[in-house]
Design brief:
The chain contains 6 helices and 9 strands. The chain is α/β, with parallel strands linked by helices. Helix 1 (13-23) crosses helix 6.
Amino acid sequence: MHQLGILLSGRGSNFLAIADAIRAGAIPNARIAVVISNVPDVPGLAAARQRGLAAIALDSRGRKRAEHDADVIAALRQYEVELVCLAGYMRLLSPGFIQAFPQRILNIHPSLLPAFPGLDAQTQAFNDGVQVAGCTVHFVDEQLDHGVIILQRAIPVLPSDDAHTLAGRILHEEHQAYPEAIARVLSGRYQIIGRRYVESAQ
């Protein structure tokens, strides 16, 4: 059984999509071992507890990044986490964190990377007048929104869209893409060649 660790900072809608996908059998042989937030009392932690999952708040306020990350790493190891999934985790990871889980940390970003990294990607895309937007699931490396891309889902920007409606439509795609990407990674049927994720037959 693959053990997943979820890191979040807010409502955790992508966490819930992952949990629902596991329950539906869309991510085979996997379970969420622990949900960790760097912000106490967020809805994502409450949702995890309602589902009977281990839910831990490790407050990052006023703490050095490396020290806080060391506590998060310790908790993930305590729960024997194999794959770390960032689900609205609003904190950059230290190099030490990334080295602790090499190519075992995933993130989802609401743009077609490498376009529009960072915050408010949907608004960036809308304001730039792109005709196609979407989301990207990628491995996490030491640069912001930069790691090897696992999959992307694209949607057209409609004439009726504004930044808010576009963000909502992208979020719907995120909820489909993230579980699919997790299942692909856990299958082990891929290689990373340079910066390319390449699926293999076996």
